[in-house]
């Protein structure tokens, strides 16, 4: 059995699903979305999803323009209005407040399953999207002017454009032989939901410990937070082996009891952290987006935000070419997406690397310098406001979907 599509998207995470909707709302192109994983009942039933993202205002606008925001909001979003970052080795600290940049909030903490489900629910509004789940792709064949995929059930799909949105260990990237730079951040991230005795004050907190950054992301229930604790691999292994009581005690101490005592912790999950960045985002009839194209340390909370900008930009480039009767899958068209997104991603990767190096240094001189720098920046509203506006996605050349 064989079927032809204009566009096939492999992966229906936040980035792949957003791309499908962005394309379907403005074109009649025939789109297939292939997803390997059926939603996990156990994880769906947990009170909170363990995967949580700090969503920037630019990402919110994209989700709004895709008509998903109301559905996301109805499920659960937690707005945060302040951000507090401080160094465990010294007295350096920096505080960001939404009012200082004329906004009512800085962003939203949202569970990945909430965004993903709201995006996938929207698929049914478009007759030109076929959602195939579970779909396991076995073979990728590059043919003249198209790509052929063979699924595990022997079904064959042909497409003019294949979009790899299949995450950090992208099958598409591997099977299309796309090279990428990568290295180990030497950190494992532990994620969990915790309950604290003091309220979270709608503030995103991050403490830089000598072993790595520890973030508390506030939920709408003021005593609940999602934590992202990035620590050197060995230390993380020890933390994971502690029982809940010992883990909570250690966590309260390492967070200098900023939110009082941690009274409970959910199941803990761990993610080894690697930097990955593909050499080329595109090749003829193929494009990579989201984590398939780049992964970075979660200390700046930017992975989903970069991925949604990829989705909006690639969709815009394809729609534009299609409207002008140009080949939307040609290398020259796809290169426009690559040029648009690569420089922004490189800036973010460099910034994150610099922060990781700066706060990872155990040298006294570096520690003194960064504490001085943090306190100085905290007193310079111009620089501070520029930094926070950048992180919120208020920058440069945003794709149309990122503008209200
Ligand atoms: C600990 C941690 C904390 C983070 N915190 C933040 C944050 O605060 N803010 C932020 O912006 N980002 C954050 N990130 C990054 C963010 O989670 C990722 O950047 C984002 O989820 C990537 O989305 P994606 O859709 O590209 O990939 P994924 O979410 O990985 O989705 C890929 C999809 O493809 C499917 N798939 C995979 N292989 C195949 C295949 N062969 N066939 C079909 N389907 C396939 C998968 O099942 C999945 O559904 C964090 C990451 C980590 C590890």
CATH architecture group name of the domain at 2-79 and 112-182 and 276-360: 3-Layer(bba) Sandwich
Q: Give the uncertain stretches in residue-range form.
A: none
General shape: globular
Structural class: alpha+beta
Number of helices: 12
**Strand elements, count:** 20
CATH topology of the domain at 2-79 and 112-182 and 276-360: FAD/NAD(P)-binding domain
Can you give the mean pLDDT?
94
Largest sheet: 9 strands, mixed
Strand residue content? 25-35%
What are the key terms here?
FAD/NAD(P)-binding domain, 12 helices, about 35% helix, binds flavin-adenine dinucleotide
Describe the model.
The protein is α+β, with helices and mostly antiparallel strands and 404 residues long. The protein has a domain at 2-79 and 112-182 and 276-360: FAD/NAD(P)-binding domain (3-Layer(bba) Sandwich), CATH 3.50.50.60. It is built from 12 helices and 20 strands. Strand 14 and strand 15 (224-232) form a beta hairpin. The longest helix has 30 residues, at 331-360. The protein starts with a strand and ends in a 13-residue tail after the last helix. The mean pLDDT is 94. It binds flavin-adenine dinucleotide. Flavin-adenine dinucleotide (FAD) binds next to helix 1, strand 3, strand 12 and helix 9.
């Amino acid at each position: 059995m064989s079927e032809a599509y204009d566009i096939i998207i492999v992966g229906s995470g936040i980035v792949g699903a957003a791309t499908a909707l962005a394309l379907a709302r403005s074109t009649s192109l025939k789109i297939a979305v292939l997803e390997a994983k059926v939603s996990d009942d156990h994880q769906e039933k947990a009170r909170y999803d363990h995967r949580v993202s700090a969503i920037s205002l630019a990402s919110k606008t994209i989700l709004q323009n895709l008509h998903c925001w109301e559905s996301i909001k109805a499920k659960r979003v937690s707005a945060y209005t302040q951000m507090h970052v401080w160094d465990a080795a010294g007295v350096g600290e920096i505080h960001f407040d939404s009012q200082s940049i004329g906004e009512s909030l800085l962003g939203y903490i949202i569970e990945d399953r909430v965004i993903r489900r709201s995006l996938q629910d929207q698929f049914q509004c478009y007759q030109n999207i076929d959602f195939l789940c579970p779909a396991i792709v076995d073979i990728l064949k590059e043919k003249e002017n198209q790509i052929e995929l063979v699924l595990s059930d022997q079904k064959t799909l042909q497409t003019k454009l294949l979009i790899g949105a299949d995450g950090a260990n992208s099958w598409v990237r591997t099977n299309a032989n796309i090279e990428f730079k990568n290295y180990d951040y030497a950190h494992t991230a532990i994620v969990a939901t915790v309950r604290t005795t003091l309220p979270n004050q709608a503030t995103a907190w991050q403490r830089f410990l000598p072993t790595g950054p520890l973030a508390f992301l506030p939920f709408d229930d003021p005593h609940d937070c999602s934590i992202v604790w990035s620590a050197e691999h060995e230390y993380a292994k020890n933390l994971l082996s502690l029982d809940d009581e010992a883990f909570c005690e250690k966590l309260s101490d390492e967070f200098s009891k900023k939110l009082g005592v941690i009274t409970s912790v959910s199941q803990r999950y761990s993610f080894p952290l690697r930097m990955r960045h593909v050499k080329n985002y595109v090749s003829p009839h193929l494009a990579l987006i989201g984590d398939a194209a780049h992964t970075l340390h979660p200390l700046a909370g930017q992975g989903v935000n970069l991925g949604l900008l990829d989705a909006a930009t690639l969709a815009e480039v394809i729609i534009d070419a299609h409207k002008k009767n140009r080949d939307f899958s040609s290398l020259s068209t796809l290169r426009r997406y690559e040029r648009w997104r690569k420089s922004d991603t490189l800036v973010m990767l460099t910034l994150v690397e610099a922060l990781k190096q700066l706060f990872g240094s155990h040298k006294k001189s570096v520690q003194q310098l960064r504490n001085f720098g943090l306190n100085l920046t905290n007193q310079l509203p111009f620089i501070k406001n520029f930094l926070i506006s950048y992180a919120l996605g208020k920058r440069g050349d945003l794709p149309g979907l990122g503008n209200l």
